[in-house]
């Protein structure tokens, strides 16, 4: 997904020996060979410049988790009393000892660095390959993707001085693969002329269809402080002219000039050249602006400058929002990867960044993926493939449904159980009940003690959108995440208008007070890995989660 080509002046003869192999170093990560699909082209030029990120050991992530649940659990006395930026950052700030040790090491080696987060737990370094090899006991080589020809500079192992072993947890991009798995959805089905508002969701999904199906109001929001953020990656640009065409055809009750604002990071942009319009970016903005009526929406375009890492985009947008005093109350992201493509340390750090946002009152939603039980996209497999970051317990993962009489699980809706994160307390009962229902079905193919996903779902098939002036339809959990995010944004508007706090981290509320406000999906499955995948059943399941939204019931569950 976030593939990055590092420009290399020349390839040198391949040398596999580590320059610091005999020194007192602590290995942080090692892999036995290149990722699938990549081959070694040669050693990276010693003068090639690497943009590296270094994660310092966080002081109290367990305390952050406790604080997150304290402000997110309806039965808690502190429910809705969200943390400030400084309060959230304090839990993950490294100790003074750790900061002093790491920065002293960098200074002594003449390495310039910048602090990336309010907590100071991430530093950014720019160093030549020769120095990176020396600092991290590494051998950075150029790896070429055998199908795309994309090149990336990586190492098969890296280390830090033994004296820093307790203070550093991750350096990247190092052992991660050069090309991640792709967006969660948004596959184009066909093109046609704009059709106008469909009477139902039977054949084509439109804003009017979703409003009717889920009871989503058309009354404009009133609270300008309540913001909705839409993530954009891999040069997917959201086109304002296409949005105008979309609104004219499918939301004629809205002004066709209604649009979104834009923020950029990592050299991101949002080209308005017609042929640069992105299917994913247009889908996400058209179904947030077009559903969350009147909620100020921001398209956050993440570029590739200074990123150079497989999770760079995800980490950078979370850190970008953590640095804001007033981040959007809802963030929807329609991208993902397979969990096994991400080192555990990286996954932990990203998940803790999401936890900070949640503790501050931000609802973070991700599409679950489009490969059923085979991962982010359909692939050959034996054991089931969890997706990432849906396995992170601090975000809300959104699966997909289809049909409306009744709704059923979309066969591509990725769902399952994380191999990295255990079952969180808020879903322990729901998951236990589901596992009992499964019995021996798929036994041994998944981690029965893992965090289950998705959490919720909405429609995800035949969404009508406009791209480069032409209408067509798309499928994917990419359709579902902005839909559910719009529901939450409208609820937040009403909460703020009533003088209450935003919903923030949703899951403890969804699995308790709001569980009965969701329409249970009890048919369908998500095939993959030569199996039928997981079945949708009564109650939570690993295809559609708790079910689809009923706006009026969710209002009541939110105390409105």
UniProtKB/TrEMBL annotation:
Catalytic reactions on record: Release of an N-terminal tripeptide from a polypeptide
Protein location: Secreted, Extracellular space
Entry binding sites for Ca(2+): 520-521, 539, 541
Enzyme Commission no: 3.4.14.10
One function term, GO molecular function aspect: serine-type endopeptidase activity
SMART domains according to UniProt: Pro-kuma_activ (SM00944)
Pfam family membership, one: Pro-kuma_activ
Domain Peptidase S53: 204-560
Reported cofactor(s): Ca(2+)
Record flagged with keyword Oxidoreductase: no
Active-site residue list: 280 (charge relay system), 284 (charge relay system), 478 (charge relay system)
GO biological process terms held by the UniProt record: proteolysis
Xref: CDD domains: Peptidases_S53, Pro-peptidase_S53
Primary role: Secreted tripeptidyl-peptidase which degrades proteins at acidic pHs and is involved in virulence.
Name recorded for this polypeptide: tripeptidyl-peptidase II
Native organism: Postia placenta MAD-698-R-SB12
């Amino acid at each position: 997904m976030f593939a990055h080509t590092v420009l290399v002046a020349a390839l040198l003869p391949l040398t596999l020996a580590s320059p610091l192999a005999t020194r007192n170093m602590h290995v942080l990560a090692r892999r036995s060979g290149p990722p699938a699909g990549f081959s070694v082209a040669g050693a990276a030029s010693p003068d090639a410049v690497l943009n590296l990120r270094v994660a310092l050991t966080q002081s109290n992530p367990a305390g952050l988790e406790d604080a997150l649940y304290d402000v997110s659990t309806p039965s808690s006395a502190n429910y809705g009393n969200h943390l400030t930026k400084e309060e959230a950052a304090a839990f993950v700030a490294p100790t003074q000892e750790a900061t002093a040790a790491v920065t002293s090491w960098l200074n002594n080696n003449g390495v310039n660095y910048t602090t990336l987060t309010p907590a100071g737990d991430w530093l950014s370094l720019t160093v030549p390959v020769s120095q990176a090899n020396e600092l991290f006991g590494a051998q950075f080589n150029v790896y070429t993707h055998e199908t795309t020809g994309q090149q990336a500079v990586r190492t098969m192992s890296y280390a830090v001085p033994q004296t820093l072993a307790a203070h550093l947890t991750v350096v990247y991009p190092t052992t991660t693969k050069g090309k991640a798995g792709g967006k969660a959805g948004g596959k184009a089905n066909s093109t046609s002329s704009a059709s106008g508002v469909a009477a139902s969701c039977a054949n084509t999904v439109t804003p009017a269809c979703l409003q009717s199906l889920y009871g989503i109001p058309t009354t404009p929001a009133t609270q300008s402080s309540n913001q909705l953020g839409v993530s954009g990656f891999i040069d997917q640009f959201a086109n304002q002219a296409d949005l105008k065409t979309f609104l004219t055809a499918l939301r004629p009750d809205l002004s066709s000039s209604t649009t979104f604002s834009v923020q950029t990071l990592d050299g991101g942009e949002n080209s308005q050249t017609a042929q640069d319009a992105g299917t994913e970016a247009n889908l996400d903005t058209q179904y947030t602006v077009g559903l969350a009526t009147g909620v100020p929406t921001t398209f956050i375009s993440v570029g590739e400058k200074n990123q150079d890492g497989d999770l760079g985009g995800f980490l950078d947008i979370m850190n970008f929002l953590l640095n804001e005093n007033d981040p959007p109350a809802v963030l929807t992201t329609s991208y993902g990867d397979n969990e096994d493509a991400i080192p555990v340390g990286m996954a932990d750090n990203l998940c803790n960044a999401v936890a900070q946002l949640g503790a501050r009152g931000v609802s973070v939603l991700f599409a679950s993926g489009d490969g059923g039980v085979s991962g982010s996209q359909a692939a050959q497999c034996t054991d089931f493939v969890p997706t990432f970051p849906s396995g992170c317990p601090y975000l809300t993962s959104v699966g997909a449904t289809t049909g409306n009489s009744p709704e059923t699980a979309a066969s591509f809706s990725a769902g399952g159980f994380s191999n990295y994160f255990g079952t969180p307390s808020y879903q322990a009962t729901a998951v236990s009940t589901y596992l009992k229902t499964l019995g021996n079905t798929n036994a041994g193919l998944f981690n029965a003690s893992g965090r289950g996903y998705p959490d919720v779902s909405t429609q995800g098939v035949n969404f009508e959108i406009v791209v480069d002036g032409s209408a067509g339809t798309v499928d994917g959990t990419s359709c579902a995440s902005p839909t559910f995010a719009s529901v939450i944004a409208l609820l937040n508007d009403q909460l703020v208008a009533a003088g209450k706090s935003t919903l923030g981290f949703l899951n403890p509320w969804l699995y308790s007070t709001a569980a009965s406000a969701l329409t249970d999906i009890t048919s369908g499955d998500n095939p993959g890995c030569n199996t039928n995948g997981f079945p949708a059943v009564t109650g939570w399941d690993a295809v559609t989660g708790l079910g689809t939204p009923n706006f009026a019931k969710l209002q009541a569950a939110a105390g409105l």
